[in-house]
Predict the structure.
Amino acid sequence: MTASAIHSPHSPDTRLPQVSRILLADYRSYAALDLDIDAAVIALTGENGAGKTNVLEALSLFTPGRGLRRAELSECARAGGAGGFSVSVALRDENGEIRLGTGFEPDGAGGGARKCRIDGAPVGSPRDFAERLRIVWMTPSMDGLFAGSAGERRRFLDRLVLTVDPAHGARVNALERALRNRNRLLEGDSERAWLDAAEREVAEIGVAVTAARLETVSRLAALVDSERDDSSPFPWAEFALAGEVEALVAAHSALEAEDRYRALLASGRARDAAAGRTLVGPQASDLVVRHGPKKIEARACSTGEQKALLTGLVLAHARLVAAVTGMTPLVLLDEIAAHFDPVRRRALYEELARLGGQAWLTGADPAAFADLAGHAQVLRVTPGRIEG
């Protein structure tokens, strides 16, 4: 399926992968877990610290990157275990069932390696899972996104892009390496040819990263605009990617944008050397978000409005993933219902049903999931155990 293909999220050919079984071994608080799943909505309830988020984090490892906590893999191993862990899921869709597995194997010297398997056969990286499964998530740590730093919003945006385009993570990592190389060269008395080569690499990768971000922002904005509803409990958002390279990529061909960005880098060498870092580029861009119906910056909204705005944005992104990839993503919503009133909770559950895929929710209060009675698998989590 090409990234440019567009499907209706509700078209007959949209795949709806769902986890039918999850197994954990030495993962966080779980020495061993073997859990059968038989619903499209799974609600995990239990006291804080019981291990609800650990299950969502384990599922999030089937995407490129370090999962929803952004933790080092070694940190996910159970305290008192052998230092490694494994996570396995049985994934069922219209084409049948497949097994995905990932984990961490320590090397005995303080390091280790990530392992990935599909139906028992080793694969190179979590990027190989993308043809079978896409995942989006929302966690309490994202609640301050709009009032936080530009870096937090860039990471959020890159996660949105990565779910649509699994190669994006490799580009972002390559850009970080190229920028570090240029910064090192600026620290010394490097020959001009070395800096020219470094800046050529930064410009080429930087324009590719920016183009991918702009494409996702444009697609998401078009989808949100087509669904605008001022009365929705989850207000629609206006958003744009701001930055000098973003302006270049939007106005010029890729090659011309690279040339102009490279010229900016060359003219800014003295300034960047004094600052100790490269000041212009995709690493300095920002995702600007506005509350659509109110026409105000998201950071100026109340905490409740920001939560609702972010939820609407994440749900819209899930619909975009389905439209672009032809595969409805798994939706992971950590502690999502606690801060919503009953009207917004019901609206959330209706939105998840409309999306049509599988959703995993967590919450300390079982009453928050009362509206899901008969329509969800509600499980009680205690340290190291999950029971129906």
The radius of gyration is 22 Å.
